[in-house]
Backbone:
């Protein structure tokens, strides 16, 4: 894949990858859990030379003496895991189309939340429950940036 785009939830920071994407992974370390506010950090590496910031600038937090983490200062979306002079990891969920970026390895599994392995077995809402929720979901007006670049962002108020 190349020419992939993405960015933060509010659209203040956008990026494009002009080269090949590296290895998609899940990191279970406690720092990734905290940085993503989640059970793990889904990341994919790219060459820094292939990464173009097309809108805005990420804010940086030095989460350790070895890693900087980039995020949107406006909406808080995690964007980067910066650990090398030549490579950078991007948050998979920040891509406009994260579906092709299926992780192929899990890192720091010793720090994984014990019940994360049970997630696929959790029940999902029945068809009747989904039908009841449909009206609620249909009434939601999203303020999220669309999953593609557009000159019409932010929308006129």
Residues:
């Amino acid at each position: 894949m190349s020419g992939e785009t993405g960015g933060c939830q509010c659209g203040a920071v956008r990026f494009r990858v002009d080269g090949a994407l590296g290895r998609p992974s899940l990191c279970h370390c406690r720092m990734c859990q905290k940085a993503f506010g989640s059970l793990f950090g889904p990341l994919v590496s790219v060459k820094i030379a292939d990464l173009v910031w097309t809108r805005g600038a990420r804010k940086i937090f030095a989460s350790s003496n070895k890693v900087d983490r980039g995020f949107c200062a406006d909406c808080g979306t995690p964007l980067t895991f910066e650990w090398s002079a030549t490579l950078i990891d991007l948050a998979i969920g920040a891509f406009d189309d994260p579906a092709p970026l299926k992780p192929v390895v899990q890192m720091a599994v010793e720090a994984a939340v014990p019940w994360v392995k049970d997630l696929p077995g959790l029940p999902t809402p029945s068809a009747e429950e989904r039908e009841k929720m449909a009206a609620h979901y249909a009434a939601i007006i999203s303020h999220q940036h669309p999953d593609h670049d557009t000159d019409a962002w932010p929308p006129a108020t």
About this structure: The longest strand covers residues 41-47. The two ends are 36 Å apart (CA to CA). The first helix runs from residue 30 to 36.
